[in-house]
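Changelog note: in this version the structure field was regenerated for every chain. One regenerated record is shown below for reference.
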Amino acid sequence: MNDSLDRVAQIQREWARERPDLDVSPANVIGRLHRLAAFLTEELLVVYRRHGLGEGDFDVLAALRRAGAPFERAPKDLARHTMVTTGAITKRLDRLEEAGLVQRRPDDADGRGRVVALTARGREVIDAAFTEHIENEHRLIASLAPREAAALETLLGTWLRAFEDPA
C-alpha cells in the first residue's frame, strides 16, 4: 500500500477495485470525519480524566457554568443543553452530586420542580478543566492555518444545521 495515502484513501482504493459500480466518494468525507472524531475524543478525554471527569460529567458541569450566576439549571434544561436524555442526566447528576460538584434542591419558583446548581468545588473543577480543555483544543487545531480553521468551521456549521434544523 502507498504510505503517502491516509487510511481512508487506502480503503477507497480497495472499494474502487472491488465495487467499481458504486460511488463511494462520500466516505472520503464521512470516513475522515469519523476517524478524526475518534482521535479528537481520545485527546479531549485525557484532559477530562486529569480533572476526575468523564465526558458526560464535563458536559453537565460546563452547561451549568455557562448558565451564569447562580450556575444552575433545571434537569430538563440540562438535558437540552447537553443533548442527552433526562434519564442520562439523572445518572450523571447522581455521580456529580456524590462527588460534591453539584447539588439538587427544590425550585423556588415551582415547588414540584428541582434545580441543579454547581457547588463551589464544582465551579473550581469546571473552571480548571475548561481552561485546560480550551488550551488542548487550540493544540488540536494548530496544524490548520487560521483561514483553514475558519473555512472548516463554516463548512461544518452549514452541514450541522442541515441535520439540526431540517427543512
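Spot check on this record: The radius of gyration is 21 Å. The beta strands are 72-73, 102-106, 114-118.
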